[in-house]
Fold this sequence. Notes:
By secondary structure, the protein is of the alpha+beta class.
Amino acid sequence: MESLGLSPGDFRTAADLARLPLISKKDVAAAPERFRPAAGVVRTALNIQSSGTAGKPSYIDYDARALFLSLAASQRRRDVTARFLGGGFAFRELTIARLGSVSTQLRDFYEANSWTPRRLDLNRLMLAPSEPFPTVVERMNAFRPHLLSGYGSYIGALLRWAHSQQCTFHRPRAILYGADGMPENDRLLIEDEFGIPVLSSYQSVEALRIAFQCEERRGFHIDSDQVVLRVVDATGATLPPGVPGEVVISNLTNRATVLLNYRQGDVAALSQRRCGCGRNLPMLESIQGRQDDLVRLPGGSVAHPLALMAVLQRVPGVVQVQLVQQELCSFLLRSVCVPAADWATRSE
Length: 348
Ligand SMILES: [Zn+2]
């Protein structure tokens, strides 16, 4: 702020945060102390570690107040899932998560620092995403969860396997994923073949609650009391609704690590749609995934590979697709395909 000649009085609305320089994962990893308040100002309640799917792990300090505000925002998601689960907040949830994941670190904190009335608490079974599929199906059949949650990629692969094996499995009333994406062909299989609604939630280690899908499952509602979310182009300029660009967030609650105007590294577009559910939180059209995986286009712009891959993944018989950008206008496409008759034996 000093180098830009700005003072706190120059920040009147959330939009003014765009006047600050953009910061990246790299900036925070290189000098985390620059984003923490002076010693003694805020007490760190939890140092969350995120391994991420690419690059080095990140460590973000959180204060207790921010963690409880995040818990309050998660009630918005439970309100949505409760409608699919047939009302009531107490239900059985099977979570596919690895020990030490961000969600388990958070859960440990809440269990140690809060109390939930039993009638509101849910009954949870956790399984690691390294468990063999037959074991998961066996445990699922015994536990009979109302909700199945966890990694989208894993749940997609699990149910695709169950489909190929034609094995009997207990069908949850809804599926909720958040940590990563679910391949579109898996989501279609789960919704169309099994009739299980799939919900998604958007969060990161830098902002624990960013956006969530409501009952309509068209776009995401932004937790605008938790984050300010902008979509920017390559130069950092704010893009209008409907135009995809990089997500930049300012975490409004965390005072133990202050992240303002932070490049989240996902691609999304804001939406001006008024959602039929009646919530008036601002909306994102869709979230296209991690920025590490972008495809370069002529003219300096970029596209998320899912925009190309999702179409390829819908082709019947295609099990796996890999797209390698060799040069700006030169791609290598590898695919694993099986004849429809072999699907049952090969798709695992
Ligand atoms: Zn809605």
